Amino acid sequence: MHGHPTRRDNARRADDPQRRNASRVGGVYLWHRRLGLAAGALVLVLVATGLALNHGAALALKDLRVTNDWVLSFYRPEPKTPPVSYPAGGAWLTWLEGGLYLDGRPIAEGTAAPKGALALGDLIAVGTGDELLLFTLRGKLVERLSDAGLPGPIEAMGRSRDGQVVLQTPRGRFSSDADFSTWRTTETDAAWSSPAAAPQAVRNEVLAAYRGRGVPLERLLLDIHTGRIVGPWGPYLMDAAALCLLVLLGTGIYNWLRGRP
Amino acid sequence: MYQKPRHFLAEAFGDEIPEPRFLWVTSELKPRIKRIMGHRLGVLRVRYWGRGRRTAWILEEIGKYKPITTGIVVDGDRIERLKVLVYRESHGWEVRYPFFTNQFKSATLAPGLRLDRHIDGISGATLSVNALTRLAKLALFFHARTPHAQR
Questions:
Q1: Is A148 within 8 Å of B20 when comparing Cβ atoms?
Q2: Model ipTM?
Q3: Which of A50, A159, A214, B107: disulfide with A67, CB 3.0–4.6 Å?
């Protein structure tokens, strides 16, 4: 009666439908637990971000901005090219990947690399290849002279001894009055504007401005919710978490129907 | 480039091109400029040339992606001439032809900052047509704020 189970006993147990069933349910329960543990963290992220996004307007998520450097590094890579600065009177005009900055303050976007910058009384003139931009000393754009109003593509920009602005173009050298209304050919030499190393404080401000005012919290939460924040494979990770939830639902129902805890 | 601005001005004023003057974009003008153009102008001043009751404007507006440089002459509060000076895109350049630009001759600004007429469009050049229409309205609007406007 008592003692080790015989081979016949084991075979009888293996054949027992109740035992087979118990083994299958136990297996499902185990996988339910494992899947739950594995996907738990991601599901928690999905739930937390989903809840927040659902009440985004009430939480004013669009108005809140995240300025943490580590977070921003996901959104704005470091500039691929170094900034280029020109002294203009007592100020520094810096160009960085299409953006113009005056003493570190952004003043224009979408511009080509400057060929020179000059302080002209209460204006700062910046010559790119195909336009001449005039700014106030505080960086407000006064006027934009396109290539239609210039004698040619600007190769260099400078000032003659008598204070006139001189442009070097493929068609020759031209000078103009302070209003830039008329361009006349000239042979006069000029002190050409050339790039120089801006003070570190200015460079730091330019880089900080380049990285932006931060990212809206709503966008950050959305990117975490969808997995996009970790890269192109992030959404697949979140897809997997969502599918795990679905499987958990299935195994949970199965376990419940089978009476297991 | 179809015509240099200097040549356009010479056509408008003869050999004696007046010195440019500036119309400052004040806070009073900004809302109506935005209504005309659909966006802020982004500059503090606009240059123009004027003599008598005539003013000439070299204005730019983006068609699809790039700006269209346009010369507009306003005389006696009506458009005398509108000409495309520089067209930088590969499509929609038909707007430079007189069959289109002649529609703006004698146009004036109606209440509501609209032109006093309908401008027929060109198939495939809708954005350019709209850009030039906006510039025509803008030139008329600006002209009325210069000393050369009809009193």
A1: no
A2: 0.83
A3: A214
The reply to whether residue B44 touches residue A140, judged by beta carbons under 8 angstroms, is yes
Q: Using DSSP bridges, classify how beta strands A131-136 and B114-115 pair: parallel, antiparallel or unpaired.
A: unpaired
Instruction: Tell me how many degrees the CA angle B135-B138-B139 measures, rounded to the nearest 5.
Output: 90
**Encoded tokens for A30:** 């185990």
pLDDT digits (tens, 9 = 90+) for A16-46: 665 555 555 567 778 788 888 878 888 888 8
Q: Are the Cβ atoms of B85 and A146 closer than 8 angstroms?
A: no
CA distance A113 to chain B (A): 18
Supply the pTM of this predicted model: 0.69
Which of A181, A182, A183, A184 should we substitute to test contact with B (largest number of B Cβ atoms within 10 Å)?
A181
Contact A179 B19 (CB under 8 A): yes
Whole-number pLDDT of residue B70: 94
CA dist A177 and A140 (Å) reads 21
Q: Is the confidence at residue B73, as pLDDT, over 90?
A: yes
Closest CA to A230 of A120, A75, A88: A75
DSSP H stretches of helix in chain A: 7-15, 17-54, 56-59, 69-72, 200-210, 217-226, 234-258
